Amino acid sequence: MKVRNLLSVNLLLSCKAVKGGFSIHWCWIVLAAGFYTVFMAYGIRFSYGILLPAMIRELGITTTEAGLIYSGYFLAYAFFAPIVGTLTDRVGGRRVVALFCVVLGVGALMMGLINRWQTGFTSALIMGVGASATWTPIVALVSKWFGVKRRGRALGILTSGYGWGFGVMGILIPLIVASYGWRYCWYSLALMALSAALINALLLRSKPEELGLKPYGWTSEDVGGMVSPGRINYRSIVREAGFWLIGASYFAISFATYIAMLYTVSYVNLELDVEYVVAAVLMSVVAFSGIPGGLIIPTLSDYLGRRGTMAVCNAVVAFTLISFVSVGSNLHVLIGIAALYGAFYSAIWPIYAAYAADYFSREAAGTVVGLWTVNYGIGAMTGSAVAGYVRDVTRTFFWSFTLASLMAGLSVALILVSKLKKRVKDSH
Fold it and tell me: Which of 5, 27, 30, 328 has the most beta carbons within 10 angstroms of its beta carbon?
């Protein structure tokens, strides 16, 4: 404990020391730690879909069973998300994030040891428990370190971490599979999770007030979104009709997008008969196109409005999902669709998170996003399983992706009919 605190203090002093007028606000240290955590967590999450063709071949599982394994991840994720969100609001993010990263590492290690889908399901459950603290607490924590006018950009930077995470995995994993097999991929991912636990334990700070600071970019406009810790009005949150409508849209877009994220490589490799390495690179296209999308679009939402920007993003996702299974095996067209999908998909989640922080106060952001994330987990869980079953019954991924497109369209409708009362002045 003393060593950790001493290292953190030394880092703080070095960042605040002035040399030629140079100083660094601790928000950037927090953002960097959060970035690596998201990089790691989403690298692990989306690696399953990239590894799926190799796992299906070796384990001899059906698409339905493969979907059920992934559903285990989101079953645990959905159950623990509101718990870790509330824990973050009440006791701070550092301990929560560090502990759950260890759990995620254990689950990834176990996934590399499985021999049938049932043990894969158990491993995915453990991974889901750990992963539940790698988005909601991080988003809430970063939101607390930035003022309203800086928040969308900060969350966009944070979100680019998962673009880099699974983008890099889309390139590296096929190479590791070719040389060592898919199991060693899981062992490597487990080590990443454990390193993230150490980084977060040393560097995270739950809020700027702990260091005598104000949020970066703080102005008087932020006062309306700040409440004292421990005074979150849960009753007023759940009485908002918009809270439930946005939560339902969160479910629908999660259902849709995780069908694509899980089955794209399998569709292109197993159904279109495109080489595995090339199919996996499509996920890197999605990921890397999402980096500028995740930076630019959430920043634009600071000025154009959260609700309208969310609706546009989800509508583009609906269009690309149906297009992807309608153009055949033309690789150039598939790459273009993947790039468009990635740019708008990556912007969805930080805008939802910024929406929560704008309308429900900084201190309640973790709880709100945590409650919405229950719907997110249920959507991903049911989408993965249902799409796998549909594919086994119809012997094609076409209808699975069509279902995904329809659910994304539903999310747009739910956003458009929702309306939350603003809690922060000029939050856009």
Answer: 30
- What pairs with residue 115 in β-bridges? none
CA quadruple 178, 69, 104, 111: dihedral sign: negative
Contact 169, 6 (CB under 8 A): no
Q: Pick the closest to residue 267 from 201, 326, 208, 185 (CA basis).
A: 326
Write down the H helix ranges in 267-364: 276-304, 306-324, 331-360
Q: Which residues partner with 22 through β-bridges?
A: 19
In a domain, 20, yes or no: no
Q: What is the CATH number of the domain that holds 369?
A: 1.20.1250.20
* Terminal-residue alpha carbon distance, the chain: 41
Mean pLDDT to the nearest integer, 97-108: 96
- Identify the domain containing residue 322 by its residue range: 25-210+235-417
Tokens of 209: 């007030």
DSSP SS3 for 216:
strand
Dihedral of CA 250/253/254/255: which sign?
A: positive
Number of domains in the chain: 1
Count the alpha carbons within 13 Å of 263 in the hemisphere toward its beta carbon. 39
Task: Assign 227 a pLDDT band (cuts: 50, 70, 90).
Answer: very low
pLDDT digits (tens, 9 = 90+) for 20-35: 444 677 788 888 999 9
Residue with tokens 């810790």: 229
Q: How far apart are CA 399 and CA 265, in angstroms?
A: 16
The dihedral sign for the CA sequence 223, 229, 233, 237: positive
User: What is the rounded CA–CA span in Å between residue 334 and residue 390?
Assistant: 22
Give the type of residue at 170.
Answer: G
Domain contains 382: yes
Distance CA 153, CA 347 (A): 11
Question: DSSP class of residue 261?
Answer: H
